[in-house]
Amino acid sequence: MPKPKRYVWRIKQKKQTASSSSAPPPPPPWVELPREITADILSRLGTVEILLNAQRVCSTWCNICHDPSMWRVIDMRNDEDTYMEDVFDKLCRIAVDRSQGQLLKINIEYFGNHDLLQYITQRSSQLRHLRLVSCDDILNGSLAAVAKNFPLLEELHIYLTAICTVDIEAVGRSCSQLKSFTFNDCGFRGLTRFRSLQIDVNDQALAIAVNMPELRHLALFGNTMTNEGLCAILDGCPRLESLDLRHCYSIDLKGDLETRCHQHIIDLKCPRDCTHGYEFSAQICDYNSGDDQSVWFSDYFNDYEYDYDDFDYDDFTNPFNGEYLDEDGFFW
After folding, report:
1. Helix (H, G, I), strand (E, B) or coil at 59
2. If you ran DSSP here, which 8-state letter would residue 4 be given?
């Protein structure tokens, strides 16, 4: 009688297969990268991408994304989405907190208000570079209220954001190391009406001349100043190396003033120079037409056509409002 077949080998093989399948998968290859290389790669993603996505990939990345050295530079660009302003505000505060006082450079575009600006400056005494772009809720006097909190500031760049003479004076007095100042607006033509309304078109230029003597680089795209304001800047800022006067149409750059500018300024952009490459809209507001001031103001506001269908929006259905962010910047 033949002996029965034995299946020992197959049983052992099944056990081996089962044990091998329960072994943990190997770690992803990026985990083995040196920490400094990983940090360099992550820093290229941008602040928002890190907070909303990158830090969730693995524990190694999460740990690196909480390192204060990762937050010495914060770049927050909202792309003009008003529905996301509260989210960007919360993300910006999280990024500032993670810097633990090491923040050196910050850029804020299309969101932000006085409270956020104050929050940043109270926690960033080492700040060297501040850039604000179209921050409509940062009002006149906001910079003056916080200027004393960043005494080491070297560069201040303001685009399409309201600041006043008081702000410029306070920044100049508090930030003695300021070397580069940008205050760019829309270009204006026909500003004789401002003078008839007793508006001082040179007040900002005079504030710069008196309070920012150490400037090397100055950009005043679209400023309302006249030759008087320009002369004051040349007198008060003798170390200027670059000066952007494009769209400053109240300046008549001729004769001795033109010669003086070209002799003392290495990089000079004149009022009617080309704006090719300028990163924002080079819009010109022309008030030359019409003599009646009341018509001027009326025409100014009537130029805007409002489509009220654009405002059909329910805040309670917005999945991106601030109520959905936890303290680490995660949606829940």
Report:
1. helix
2. P
99 assigned to some structural domain: yes
**pLDDT less than 50: residues of the chain:** 7-9, 11-12, 18-19, 188-198, 287, 289-324, 330-332
pTM score > 0.85 for this model? no
CA distance 81 to 116: 18
What does the DSSP assignment read for 203-243?
A: HHHHHHHHH-TT-SEEE-TT----HHHHHHHHHH-TT--EE
Structure tokens at 39: 């940090």
Domain identity same for 81 and 220:
yes
Cα separation, 286 vs 288, in Å, equals 6
Q: What is the pLDDT of residue 166?
A: 96
CB atoms within 10 A of CB 45: 13
Q: What is the pLDDT of residue 180?
A: 98
**Tokens read off for 93:** 């505060």
Same domain, 185 and 102: yes
First to last CA, the chain: 71
Distance CA 309, CA 327 (A): 34
Same domain, 62 and 148: no
Q: Cα(176)–Cα(151) distance, rounded to whole angstroms?
A: 7
Which domain, by its residues, includes 40?
29-66
98 shares a domain with 58: no
Q: How many CA atoms lie within 13 A of 105 on its CB side?
A: 7
Separation between Cα atoms, residue 145 and residue 127, nearest integer Å? 16
In a domain, 122, yes or no: yes
The residues pairing with 129 across neighbouring beta strands, listed in sequence order, are: 105, 155
Average pLDDT, the chain: 81
Residue 166 forms part of a structural domain: yes
How many Cα atoms within 13 Å fall on the side-chain side of residue 253?
A: 19
At 269, phi and psi to the nearest 5? -115, 120
